[in-house]
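Title: Comparing notes on inverse folding

I've been comparing how different people in this forum approach sequence design from structure. To keep things fair, I'm posting one structure and asking everyone to reply with a full sequence. Here's the target:
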């Protein structure tokens, strides 16, 4: 298929058009192909293969596609890519946690007395120091977490809807997925625990803001 498509470009380049035009690639039947022509054919084939890969990547809008997407990310050891097919509720919670923890850390650095800063920053945890929600997910879903996912993922055999989620039985085990508002399916992951952490992070940010305001008033009175 690739070769026939490459030969379909015949009318666009003529032999000897110049170094920039793959001279010698396109030829009448039976004509001799040059070394440059062979290189150009290979280049076209490589570019077309890349295009095919982009066009036919797994589609997370389907259960099968979401599972395939996750499987590829796990095989590559790419936690930040895997984050893209985690349940939307967990992704939103991680976004909120990272935002609140980083905001709290900035306030601590700017407003707390030097002697109180180290303890206050430690209390905020690792979420205050990551660059993104995806990075926090990758940090928390380490080797053991990813291995557990890998063991359960496989070709879907059956599915059953349960409380807005879909329990999928695969050739290797069972996984839960949920369709998000973005139409992508995501793997259900620590939903309740992250919801509680999100609430704590928000409350801690409010407390840090109050403390920062108090320290600012105390500084003015000096």
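Reply #1:
Here's my take.
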């Amino acid at each position: 298929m690739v070769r026939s498509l490459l030969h379909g470009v015949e009318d666009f380049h003529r032999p000897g058009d110049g170094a920039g035009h793959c001279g010698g690639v396109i030829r009448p039947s039976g004509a001799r192909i040059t070394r440059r022509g062979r290189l150009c054919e290979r280049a076209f084939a490589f570019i077309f293969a890349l295009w095919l890969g982009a066009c036919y990547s797994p589609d997370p809008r389907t259960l099968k596609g979401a599972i395939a997407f996750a499987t590829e990310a796990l095989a590559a050891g790419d936690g930040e890519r895997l984050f893209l097919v985690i349940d939307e509720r967990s992704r939103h919670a991680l976004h909120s946690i990272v935002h609140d923890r980083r905001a709290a850390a900035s306030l601590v650095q700017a407003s707390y007395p030097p002697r109180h800063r180290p303890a206050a920053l430690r209390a905020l945890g690792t979420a205050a120091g990551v660059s993104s929600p995806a990075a926090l997910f990758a940090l928390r879903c380490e080797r053991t977490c990813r291995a557990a996912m890998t063991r359960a993922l496989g070709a879907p055999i059956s599915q059953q809807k349960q409380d807005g989620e879909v329990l999928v039985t695969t050739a290797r085990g069972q996984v839960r997925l949920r369709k998000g508002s973005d139409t992508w399916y995501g793997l259900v992951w620590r939903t309740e625990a992250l919801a509680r952490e999100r609430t704590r992070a928000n409350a801690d940010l409010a407390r840090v803001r109050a403390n920062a305001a108090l320290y600012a008033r105390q500084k003015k009175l000096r």
